[in-house]
Amino acid sequence: MLLIQDIQANKEAILARLAKRGVDFTDLVNQAITLDDDRRSTQVELDNTLAASNKISKKIGQLFAQKKIEEANAKKAETGELKAKSNELSESLKSISDELYDVLYQIPNVPSEAVPAGKSEADNKVVLEHGDNPNLTQNLPHWELCEKYNLIDFELGVKITGAGFPVYRGKGARLQRALINWFLDKGRDAGFEEIQPPILVNEASGIGTGQLPDKEGQMYHMQTDDLYAIPTGEVPITNIYRDVIVKEDDLPIKNCGHSPCFRREAGSYGKDVRGLNRLHQFDKVEIVQIAHPEKSYGLLEEMSSYVQSLLKDLGLRYRVLLLCGGDTGFASAMTYDMEVWSAAQERWLEVSSVSNFETFQSNRLKLRYKNTDGKNVLAHTLNGSALALPRIMASIMENFQTPEGIVVPEVLRPYCGFDVID
Description:
There is one protein chain. Helices cover about 40% and strands about 20% of the residues. The chain contains 13 helices and 19 strands. The chain has helices spanning about 5-10, 10-20, 25-65, 70-105, 140-150, 155-160, 170-190, 205-210, 235-240, 295-315, 360-365, 390-400, 415, and strands spanning about 125-130, 150-155, 165-170, 195, 200, 220, 225-230, 245, 255-260, 280-290, 320, 335-340, 345-355, 370, 375-380, 380-390, 400, 405, 420. Helix 3 (about 25-65) packs antiparallel against helix 4 and helix 5 (about 140-150) packs across helix 12 (about 390-400).
């Protein structure tokens, strides 16, 4: 959530950068400013009313002490009127504040100056490409390879739950587990503390990281207990620091964690979501950092390089995209997407996003650090997938297939216990 004081002080600059998203947010920004002005004036009127009431109350005490009963009772009538007015102003202040927050919740984060303007993925900027296309003697898509080698049963998942909930079997299950363990070990070696978070969160957690209140339709909601299944490990891990003041010397704080993720993905159909390309349930290893504002963009570059190192170790061809404003997530100020080449599908598949949220999440979370002047300052938050499992699994199967079987990347062989899937 944007800081209203920043909107008040830098309205035109904020609107100019929000325009990079390809949407005009002028009405919402103006509405927020008007509501904040109303809130401020109501607060001043309430403070003055309470001060007047307190002043009269002291006077009443003095009058009673002086035995001036009639005059004291007359003053009591005045305090009654002031109390009624203060109650009315308090209710009005709460209503205005609630409306202000409702409006602020609808305004996305301001894109970084480095983010290109644009409305869709067509406007994203390719930052780099690495690796070459594999030379394949056969070119089967991963869903056919899964069936051929009995690795993942999509139809069985439909029977048990529904479409988008696959069942991993045999070497398919072992390959996924190997990837998870390898990702976590690499994260530990890079200085990330491993977290095993809950996979259900409350509403406050969803609000803290920006999934709520406007994205309920994308999350699975357990109404009886008012809990949400997490769409990403970012949500519970980042919420560890909700309402926390961390030590400046402890920054950056680095966490990683594996979790299943649940996304309704309403309205997703067609060949581009076949097989592992888009699921309702999948596994992911997430990395999260709590950072000093002056160092967060340097850490974003480090996180991008870290994810790239995993893709290099796996031997996958990949590219890095700097997302344009219109394709950047609601809460993000700047995002890099990492995509791997799918040899069989002949297209790029997104496998990771690393993002800097600046103070957008920490303002909602009330996540601060105490600086050298003793002031509490909002920290910056960052996160990224390192990595999402389904499309990595698909890419490994498709890019390393041979007529004799699927060759397992060398770094995974000690974790798998086998070199080839045949």
